[in-house]
Amino acid sequence: MSEKELRDLKAELAEKFEAYKAQGLKLNMARGKPGAEQLALSMKMLDVLNSQSDMQTSDGLDCRNYGGPDGLPEMRELLAQMMGLQAENVLVGGNSSLNLMFDTVSCAMTHGLPGGKPWCLQADRKFLCPAPGYDRHFSVTEYFGFELITVPMLPTGPDMDMVERLVRSDASIKGIWCVPKYSNPTGITYSDETVRRFAALKPAAPDFRIFWDNAYCVHDLTDTPDVLLNLWDECRKNGTEDLPLFFASTSKITFPGAGIAALGASEKNLAVLRNHFRYQTIGPDKLNQMRHLAFLKDMNGVHAQMQKHRALIAPKFEVVEETFAEQLTGKGVAAWSKPNGGYFISVDVLDGCAKRTVALCKEAGVTLTGAGATYPYKKDPNDRNIRVAPTYPPKTEVKAAAELFCLCAQLAACEKLLQNA
Ligand code: PMP
């Protein structure tokens, strides 16, 4: 476009923008939260326990009392199946997998993991952060004083050439954050080759760990779901079963904040972590485990519940994708992901335009995840990536928010191009 054409377009977009502002929208697509209708899907779970319920586990434990630090046997079995592990390798925790990840890093910091000294004794400790990635992962390791190293995310997963090169040569690198299925925010699932390369890693640090956060393992949105190769099986073939630490939860199956989280690991890793948790708590909330078991029953129950979630949220993803396709295709101002599952659409706007796009949306009443949040230290080197979370608002509002997003991305691009003209 000529400078004149750009100026005219900017004026036209600015006028539309003012009209949006006048509507006084108040929408939020910032965090991956289930919408109210999704939460309603699990309300019956609250009916399954009452004063008449049998409170004994299959092995005779009274769930109202202390005990059962590893979790109810049936809950370990169910979460193990969900995560592709064996029940004896799974510990059931409290309500949050992020909490388990934090505690695992904390344990490694103060007491060390098998094969290594406490991480706090390594002054220049580093952690690999595939980006765009999950901001709360990065924050945990930033909080514990790690230098965060950005690893580019490719369509196949993290850039494994870089991962292999770095971990082979640098013993101060202690781990990597991974969301292997329907990655937050890019929505991609790691390829079989990527999983095999993870299982075959030869880190210089004996206490290097892969934090395999399978938060979206059953969160499909289509009839052709992605299939993730089982890292545990691959590690066992390679004799590297101490490398991975597995995490998952029912946060986006039942209730976020009131679900059940689990950690899976080799016997050696579990011995250290179990001991650490022993000091922390006399045991998890077994009544919530009972509720979950009575409500979900087995993996068929989990899949049936996920189908109901899908029916509610897939249309919201479709609205965003349709709106983006209609309003942004061929304009060269944005590229966006089309995930088969998970909770996010990842958008790359024109370089240097993400912060401005998010600020414009905010000005007109739509809150998005802060620009930069998907990168270590919240600094996107290209100021390009924006995470869109369409699940929380009602579908009509998602449409309005997506339209405004398209307008703001174009307006920000016009401004940028005119600055450079
Ligand atoms: N991991 C990822 C990748 C997530 O996206 C989220 C939630 N947004 C979590 C973990 C948090 O899980 P939990 O509720 O089990 O702490």
UniProtKB/TrEMBL annotation:
A GO term for molecular function: L-aspartate:2-oxoglutarate aminotransferase activity
Domain of life: Bacteria
Keywords: Aminotransferase, Transferase
CDD domains: AAT_like
Pfam families xref list: Asp_aminotransf (PF12897)
InterPro entries given in the database record: AspAT_Ic, PyrdxlP-dep_Trfase, PyrdxlP-dep_Trfase_major, PyrdxlP-dep_Trfase_small
Name this protein carries in UniProt: Aminotransferase class I/II-fold pyridoxal phosphate-dependent enzyme
Organism: Caproicibacterium argilliputei
